Amino acid sequence: MVSENPIKGELKMATIIDGKSLAKKTRENLKIECDKLKLEGITPKLAVIMVGDNPASKVYVRNKSRACSDVGIEYKEYLLPEETTQEELINLIKNLNQDKEINGILLQSPLPRHLDINEAFKAITYMKDVDGFTPSSVGKLCIGEDTFISCTPYGVMKMFEEYNIDLTGKDVVILGRSNIVGKPLIQCCLQKNATVTVCHSKTKNLEEHTKRADIVISAIGQSNFVKADMIKDGAVVIDVGINRDENGKLTGDVDFEGVEKKVSYITPVPGGVGPMTIAMLMNNVIKATKEQQKEKSML
């Protein structure tokens, strides 16, 4: 269907934002950077901590391991039993903070209920915070300083950049206010001069917000929640959701078949934001490695 593109002000067919292809290109560029570091005798290394036996976490960790292999980043897993205590987890993080061979630390969520993930994030030193979850990273993002950006929001912003989607002056509506996606996205979009509205479970008249939005980013974790009648013609729709429907099929938050017919740009699930999340993790590991080397050279 032909729809008006609010970003460029022209008529065009709906464009599927190919996160898988962009992630591949990103990894290829990062491999070049990684190879250059290795020529200097520096091998980036990521430590991943997983507590318990969550099946979804196992899949995510395996995908991260493969991405590290593609880029040339060394990868080390710390698989801790379900009964791991908060003290044991914090002690491991502190040891990894001190390990000069480790450039990035990733704590895989969710954690078992008896563990406080926020306290664990606080224990990660800023220079190794490749997930962008520590208070230092979040604070720097809020005041516009260079920092490690949470990987999913970072991936979304890279998609906008790749497809020349200018956020300046645009009405952006974000569905979801999580610390991992929604809140960092607010700051990322503000830095690109967008007007940002955040909707959540307590928002009244949700559709009034989404219908006027130039860009809708959904990260609420509800299968096919966003319908075509909630979106204006020519809008851009970014689907961050990863869900399973009643048949076990992987779906996003957006009713893709219905919404695609009236928008200018849309991300699919799978193959949209997901691959970019892992690519941005690789980017942050390379960034952390470079910054740590720079710091060493100044000592």
Describe this structure in words.
The protein is of the alpha/beta class and about 300 residues long. It folds into 2 domains: about 1-15 and about 165-275, NAD(P)-binding Rossmann-like Domain (Rossmann fold); about 40-125, Rossmann fold (3-Layer(aba) Sandwich), CATH 3.40.50.10860. Helix content is about 40%, strand content about 15%. The chain has helices spanning about 20-40, 55-70, 85-100, 115-125, 135-140, 150-160, 180-190, 205-210, 255-260, 275-299, and strands at about 1-5, 10-15, 15, 45-50, 75-80, 105, 170-175, 195-200, 215-220, 235-240, 245, 250, 265. Strands 3-13-10-9-7-8 form a 6-stranded parallel β-sheet, with helices on both faces. Strands 5-4-6 form a 3-stranded parallel β-sheet, with helices on both faces. Strands 1-2 form a two-stranded antiparallel ribbon. A hairpin with a 5-residue loop joins strand 11 and strand 12. Helix 1 (about 20-40) packs parallel to helix 10 (about 275-299), helix 6 (about 150-160) packs parallel to helix 7 (about 180-190) and helix 6 (about 150-160) packs across helix 10. The radius of gyration is 20 Å and the shape is globular. The N and C termini lie far apart (about 60 Å). About 45% of the residues are buried.
Write a concise synopsis of the structure shown.
The chain is 42% helix and 17% strand.
